[in-house]
Please model this.
Amino acid sequence: MFFVESSENSHLCPVCQGTLRYRDSRPRIRKKEGGVKERLMIRRFRCQNCRTYHNELPDCLVPYKHYEAEVIAGVLDEVVLPDDLDSEDYPSVHTMIRWLQWFYENLQRIEGYLRTAGYQILHLGEEILFTSDSLLNKIRSRHQNWLELIQRIIYNSGGSLVPICW
Model:
């Protein structure tokens, strides 16, 4: 088992900016390409102000998904395909289709969070809110770890993506 530690000493609630206090840890499965499984210990925190619970996920994981972000991004970027020998059975074709559906259903939400973060957090000015350029496409073209970057921006600013319900 691995224990994932944060490099930050101070934890703030993404909902209300209150102080988070350590509560406990729980195991989380991490699947890599080819179906190799690892167990990570994920710390859980509780906000002293609004009383919400928060899991501290490393950016290699995507909330509500077992596969690591690199595999999911590979599928979304069409680098990992169903006919690859490396991923012959893991992830399955059905899982890849669900990830693509999840991604396309969240595209507008992702763009909105990126624009809001650019304006409110990075102070990039109002033009970031009204540009016709896709901020997601810019990040995808410049960073190999784009999925980790955007989910860190979204979740650390209190946002979330809609999970697929099957």
Observations:
- Strands lie at 2-3, 20-31, 37-47, 53-56.
- The chain has five helices and four strands.
- The first strand starts at residue 2 and ends at 3.
